[in-house]
Amino acid sequence: MVVIVLIAVGTGLMTLALRDSADRHLEEEGVRLAALLESARAQSRIAGTDVTWAPSAGIEPGFRFAGLADGATQALPHRWLDDGTTAEIVGAARIVLGPEPLLPPQRIVLHLGERQVALGTDGLGPFAILPPADAGAAPR
Prior knowledge:
- By secondary structure, this protein is an alpha+beta fold.
- It has a single domain (21-134), classed as minor pseudopilin epsh fold (3-Layer(bab) Sandwich).
- Helix content is 35%, strand content 24%.
- It has three helices and seven strands; from the N terminus they run H-H-E-E-H-E-E-E-E-E.
- The strands form two sheets. The chain has a four-stranded antiparallel beta sheet with strand order 3-5-6-7, covered by helices on one side. Strands 2-1-4 form a three-stranded antiparallel beta sheet.
- A hairpin with a 2-residue loop joins strand 5 (106-112) and strand 6 (115-121).
């Protein structure tokens, strides 16, 4: 009887400890994209030019940066970690990462199957994953 109880408790704890792989993949995509956007934003400030980001339209899933020198643009990744990931920019066609320290508030919603995660910036702070309550809200 004790063995059965221990197995039940262990199984219950493992179930709580394991997260859905789609949630984990989507969160990884969000953290990675936030880091890439901040890297491009820093390069934009160094070069003194506007850099833009937009999801790729077409057959190949991914995204593109524009506005950096060719070598810098090619050095940045342009594909999602999971080919099922898609992105939607809230209220705009592209994200603008200008050289100015203050940008307009911007928001991106990433989708993977039925799951979604939002990341954004208020314009002054860095891009970061937003709490679920803010996921679909329009930028302020």
